[in-house]
Specification:
- The complex is a heterodimer of chains A (80) and B (246).
- By secondary structure, chain A is mainly alpha-helical.
- Chain A contains six helices and one strand; from the N terminus they run αααβααα.
- In chain A, helix 4 (43-54) crosses helix 6.
- The longest helix of chain A is centred in the C-terminal third of the chain and has 13 residues, at 64-76.
- Chain B has helices at residues 52-67, 84-93, 95-105, 119-140, 148-179, 209-222; strands at residues 2-11, 29-33, 36-44, 72-74, 80-81, 108-116, 185-190, 196-205, 227-234, 243-245.
- The two termini of chain B are 23 Å apart.
- With 246 residues, chain B is an alpha+beta fold.
- In chain B, helix 4 crosses helix 5.
- In chain B, strand 7 and strand 8 (196-205) form a beta hairpin.
- In chain B, strands 1, 2, 3, 4 and 5 form a five-stranded antiparallel β-sheet that branches.
- Helices cover 43% and strands 26% of the residues of chain B.
- The longest helix of chain B is centred in the middle third of the chain and has 32 residues, at 148-179.
- The chains are: A mainly alpha (80), B alpha+beta (246).
- At the A-B interface, helix 1, helix 2, helix 3, strand 1 and helix 4 of A face strand 1, helix 1, strand 5, helix 2 and strand 6 of B.
Chain lengths: 80, 246
């Protein structure tokens, strides 16, 4: 059936890499900003934090210096 | 303290409970406002740390809805509100936008196409052209101006960059012409890095999915010098046009 490929789950595992997922989940989608939100840390911080955890983003290599900073801020927890 | 983690916005006033567990293993349910609802679960602040498992959980919840043939507007990871009232308030305030966006992505999935080229070869090619252009200018500059060498070097770099951009533009246009036929909408980014000539996302009706994928495979066969990276189907992350600011 033509549609079969679309219906199978989980699709993200079939074709792609975690990086593709990160590019979307962390950078796109509906964004809610403002006082009403429990402002969850800056997206960049989450992005870089994930990169630390996963060691999968090339740009982290260039930002070795920031790693330590981020790791410690992550350990402290990103929540206010 | 407990919070409400939001995964996405969907059509439908019906009560749901998903089989996919949410952050921290909590049940995912929906909070209804009018004819739309938000997919949520209750979290405490340790439940949504940015790690691989949580990112996959976020995606898996949204994909369960997608696979049930539901249009979903995916939220960005770690969208957390203080309570249910707040999410209802957002649904109320942006009701029209959510409904319109849901309509737009209905029956479609997002597909990703990354196109890599041989950066070194393309740079060499661009350099030959840039060299020629600079030579011409050099000839015209009869006298030796102070700083001429520096200026020419700057100009050459500019020509080089311009040359690469034009090549990427040409490539993107050719590829987009063939893919956009199967798609409802597209987002294109050229030369995000010097090797990534094109990073594109397409909103593709499910019935065109196979044709789209075949077209990508065909282009890969025709262009041995390029590397096509196909991904998806994704929730329509790149096709959200809602600005939620309080």
């Amino acid at each position: 059936m033509k549609d079969e490929g679309v219906e199978k789950a989980p699709s993200s595992l079939r074709h792609t890499t975690l990086l593709e997922l990160l590019d979307r989940v962390l950078d796109k989608g509906v964004v809610i900003r403002g006082d009403i939100t429990l402002a969850v840390a800056d997206v960049d911080l989450i992005y870089l934090g994930l990169a630390v955890v996963l060691a999968s983003v090339e740009r982290m290599k260039k930002e070795r210096g920031r790693d330590i900073e981020l790791e410690s801020s992550l350990r402290k927890g990103i929540m206010p | 303290m407990y919070y409400v983690y939001v995964y996405g916005i969907i059509n439908g006033p019906k009560r749901l409970r998903l089989s996919q567990k949410g952050m921290g293993g909590q049940n995912v349910f929906n909070i209804i406002y009018g004819r739309i609802s938000a997919l949520v679960s209750i979290v405490d602040k340790n439940h949504f740390e940015p790690n691989e498992k949580n990112v996959f959980t976020h995606e898996a919840v949204i994909e369960e809805m997608m696979n049930n043939n539901q249009a979903v507007l995916p939220m960005r990871f770690a969208t957390v509100l203080n309570n249910k009232r707040e999410i209802k308030e957002i649904l109320r305030k942006h009701y029209r936008e959510f409904v319109n966006n849901l309509e737009k992505v209905k029956g479609a999935v997002e597909l990703g196409v990354k196109v890599f080229w041989e950066a070194e070869r393309m740079k060499k090619k661009a350099k030959i052209i840039a060299d020629k252009r600079v030579k011409k200018i050099e000839k015209k500059m009869a006298g030796k101006l102070p700083g001429q060498k520096y200026l020419l070097k700057k100009t050459k770099n500019y020509f080089l960059e311009e040359g690469l951009e034009q090549e990427a533009e040409k490539l993107a246009k050719a590829i987009n012409q063939r893919l956009s036929r199967h798609a409802r909408d597209s987002r294109l980014k050229k030369l995000a890095t010097e090797g990534l000539a094109l990073n594109a996302s397409y909103l593709v009706p499910k019935e065109n999915y196979q044709d789209f994928e075949n077209e990508v495979a065909k282009m890969q066969k025709e262009n041995k010098n390029l590397k096509f990276l196909f991904s998806g189907p994704w929730p329509p992350y790149n096709f959200i046009e809602v600005k939620v600011a309080q």
